[in-house]
Design goal:
Alpha-Beta Plaits, NADH Oxidase, 2 domains, four-stranded antiparallel sheet, 8 strands, binds flavin mononucleotide
Length: 274
């Protein structure tokens, strides 16, 4: 996408910080004029990250018509202790209240998805946020495949560890969607620079944001595979050709309360810092 950077010379403080912070050097500081200016082909070089807009003390820059007035003002960040609590107390929720999430909260969570950082600022992620009726429809389609795989014996060969669930699944138990009232699915162009990572970041941020609102979430690897493998499910969410399904997350108001965090097994963290 071609970008247009505009500098308002009347507002500029001539500090040059915008040019110094421009990662792709689409902006340079002209010392003679005392103003930042765009380089030749800046439109094609600029990745639209809006760092120049955010860093300018006087709000003198805009990118593609987005200027200081369009951006959220700085707010209070969570204190380290609050962030630690969020990370340690985030749990996978697998039992949900039947009702959907309050629309105002849902709108806030959807809006926050736009702040997902992506490699090269590639803004082509797509999301599908499903409500109760859609999740029920996804289950019906998924069940047809799963029932066939179980009854034909294929599932037993593919996932022998899960044999103990097969009878319950055939009797209607929802071990994939867990009767959740919502599911968010992320898609990205398979050829985007950081396709996989962008998608994981999007749902990781969604996860933490949702739990900060008291909304329960659960990463759903089973649903991710179902959407990758079942063409009808891809059609139901309008997954464009060339896009890869990168993750699925159940969410809704929790029907379970945890009384403490967990103490996970430690990962190996190599550290040579003295
Ligand atoms: C990529 C990924 C896929 C997962 N898929 C499922 C799933 O399909 N169903 C499920 O019930 N839990 C799923 N989980 C949840 C994990 O089982 C859970 O994160 C883990 O047991 C730790 O529990 P906690 O999230 O409460 O800390 C998944 C988690 C991740 C990160």
């Amino acid at each position: 996408m071609a970008c247009e950077i505009v500098v308002d010379g009347n507002k500029c403080l001539h500090c040059g910080i915008c040019a110094r912070d421009c990662m792709v050097k689409a902006l340079v500081f002209n010392k003679t004029a005392g103003l930042p200016e765009t380089v030749k082909d800046a439109g094609g070089i600029c990745i639209g990250c809006q760092h120049c807009v955010a860093v300018c003390p006087s709000g003198a820059l805009s990118v593609n018509g987005v200027g200081a007035a369009d951006c959220p003002p700085l707010g209070k960040l969570p204190a380290p202790e609050e962030m630690k609590n969020l990370i340690r107390q985030r749990r996978s929720i697998r039992r949900f209240l039947p009702g959907e999430v309050d629309k105002a909260v849902l709108d806030e969570l959807k809006d926050l998805l736009h702040w997902t950082p992506t490699g090269c600022n590639d803004h082509r992620l797509r999301f599908f946020v499903a409500g109760k009726a859609e999740v029920v429809a996804f289950k019906e389609v998924t069940d047809r495949w799963v029932f066939f795989l179980i009854k034909s014996g294929i599932m037993g060969l593919l996932l022998p560890r899960y044999r103990r669930y097969f009878d319950a699944i055939l009797n209607g138990a929802d071990v994939i969607y867990r009767n959740a009232p919502h599911l968010v699915i992320v898609m990205a162009p398979a050829k985007s620079p950081c396709c996989h990572t962008d998608q994981v970041i999007a749902l990781t941020q969604f996860d933490l944001a949702a739990q900060s609102f008291g909304v329960g979430t659960c990463w759903c690897g089973f649903a991710e595979y179902a959407f990758r493998l079942i063409p009808k499910l891809r059609r139901m969410i309008g997954c464009p050709k060339g896009y890869r399904i990168g993750g699925a997350m159940l969410f809704g108001m929790p029907a379970v309360k945890y009384h403490r965090g967990t103490q996970p097994l430690e990962f190996e963290i190599a550290d040579k810092i003295k």
